[in-house]
């Protein structure tokens, strides 16, 4: 991409990267790290014509089961916030957000985190 002077990267974070009450600590920390990586890479490689952004999906219907190992304390604390989760997105709906950021339609977007969560992050 540097040699071409252009390119686009989209990292997948999570709605958990936007706040601290949507998942457990380890998951939340890792997704906040994805946002930091995205913004740092956008800063470093933007001058080379490379855009780096992230999507922050909420729930996506993937068929992957939810982890069953959350502590009782974690489950109790998160339960009131889990009630507001919007309908799960399809993989195709999430892909549409990603392809927008990869496309020339997103040409002026660099270092952004696009919530693709059905409005969960505004609740």
Characterise the protein shown here:
36% of the residues lie in helices and 15% in strands. A 3-stranded parallel β-sheet has the order 1-2-3, with helices on both faces. The longest helix has 21 residues, at 25-45. The chain starts with 6 loop residues before the first strand and ends in a 7-residue tail after the last strand. The chain has one domain (7-59, 71-117): Rossmann fold (3-Layer(aba) Sandwich), CATH 3.40.50. It is α/β, with parallel strands linked by helices.
Mean pLDDT: 86
Gyration radius, rounded:
16 Å
Number of strands: 3
Helix % is 25-40%
Estimate nothing, just give the exact number of structural domains.
Answer: 1
Indicate the structural class. alpha/beta
Highest CATH level, the class = Alpha Beta
Q: Report the CATH topology name.
A: Rossmann fold
Task: Give the strand order, joined by hyphens, for the main sheet.
Answer: 1-2-3
Through-space gap between termini: 38 Å
Which shape, going by the Cα principal axes? elongated
CATH superfamily grouping: NAD(P)-binding Rossmann-like Domain
CATH structural architecture:
3-Layer(aba) Sandwich
Q: Please summarize the sheet with the most strands.
A: 3 strands, parallel
Strand content: 5-15%
Spans of at least 5 consecutive residues with low confidence: none
Order of helices and strands: EHEHHE
> What is the tally of helical segments?
3
Short description:
The chain has helices spanning 25-45, 72-82, 91-102; strands spanning 7-12, 50-57, 113-116. The longest helix is centred in the N-terminal third of the chain and has 21 residues, at 25-45. By secondary structure, it is an alpha/beta fold.
